[in-house]
C-alpha cells in the first residue's frame, strides 16, 4: 500500500538530477521489476508516490540524501557544481560522475558541520585565506615564496621526510593550523584528484584517496591556490580542458598548476640541483623523492626550462599514468581508513563536543558519517594507547 505522507514530487526530481542520474539509472539501481521508468515518472509528476520502504531506498541507497528532505515544501537551496567550480567549463561539469556529485554534497555538509561545531568561528589564530591576498598579476614565484614563509616549513625540513605519507600528513597539519580544513575520501575514479570549496570562515579541501599520495600532495596546493584566488575549483590530472577556457578562468587554472609546482619545488633550489645533471628517468625519480612530489611535477619543471622536449614529456607522462604503483590501498582497517579521511583534528573536535555533553552519540555518528554502532571503533582512534586496558 502506498504511503499517503506528503512526499514532494519536486524534491524527488531535484534529488535525482542533482545526483546526476537518469530515470533509467534510478530504475537500474533499485533493481526491482515492479519499479519501471513509468513508476519514477509518476512519482516525479505527483501522480503517485513511493511507499516508505521505497523512499528509504531512494534516499539512502540511490540519492544519498536524508529522508526528511523529501517532505520539504520545496528543494533546499544548495550550491550547484556550476556555482562551486566557476572555472570549470560546462562540458566538464556535465561529465562529473554521480559519485563526485555526492562527494561535493558531502563536502558541503562537512562545511556546515564545522560551522555548527565551532559555532561559526574558525578556531585558527592565523588564517591563510584571510591573511594572504594577491592580485592576479602576482608572479607565481613570489606567491609560492610568501605562502611557504607563512606556513613556516623550510626546504631543509621537507628533505628530511622519509615518505610521501609523512609529507602529506605534515602539509595537511600545516594547512589546518592556518584555518584550511582537509578531508579525504575514495573518489573511486582518477579523472579528478580533488576539489575545494571557498568560504570566508571555513575553506575546505577534499582530496581523492584513490590517487597516488604524491598526487594528493600536489592537489593540496593546487586547491590552496584556488582558495587564495577566492574561488572553488577542481584538480584534474588531465588538464587539457584548460585550453577551452578563456579570460580570468583560464588565468586562475594556469596559476593553480604553476603555483603548486613552484611551491613544492622552488625554482632557485631546483636550478641548483639540476646543474650538471644528466637528465634521465633515474635522476627524475631521485629528484621526485627528494622533494616528495611525483615524477610528473619534476618532468613539468624540466619541460618549462626546455630541458626535455614536449614529445618526451607526453610520452613519459602517458607511460607513468598507465603504470601507477604508488596508490593508496582500498582495503585495510575500516576505522583507520575513516579516521584518515576525516583527520585527527576533526575527530578530536567531534568527540570533544560529545564529552562536553553538547551533542548526543547519534549526532556524533551523523557528524562522522558513520553508523552509531561504529562510534566505539572511531573513538578508539583518539584514545591514548593502553586506555581501557
Summarize the structure.
This protein is mainly α and 389 residues long. The chain is built from 21 helices and 4 strands.
Kindly describe this structure.
The chain is mainly alpha-helical and 389 residues long. The chain contains 21 helices and 4 strands. It has 3 domains: 69 residues, 434 Repressor (Amino-terminal Domain) (Orthogonal Bundle); 176 residues, no CATH class; 46 residues, no CATH class. The protein has a 4-stranded mixed β-sheet with strand order 1-3-2-4, sandwiched between helices. A hairpin with a 6-residue loop joins strand 2 and strand 3. Helix 9 packs across helix 13, helix 11 packs parallel to helix 12 and helix 19 runs antiparallel to helix 20. It starts with 8 loop residues before the first helix and ends in a 10-residue tail after the last helix.
Total count of domains:
3
Helical content class:
40-55%
Order of helices and strands: HHHHHHHHHHHEEEHEHHHHHHHHH
Q: How much is the radius of gyration in Å?
A: 23 Å
Poorly predicted regions: 325-330, 385-389
Please tally the helical runs, counting DSSP H or I stretches of 4 or more residues: 21
What sort of overall outline do the alpha carbons produce when their principal axes are compared?
globular
Distance between the termini: 52 Å
Reading side by side through the largest sheet, how are the strands ordered?
1-3-2-4
SS content category: mainly alpha
Question: How would you sum up the major sheet?
Answer: 4 strands, mixed
Mean pLDDT: 88
- The number of E-state strands comes to 4
How big a fraction of the residues is strand? under 5%
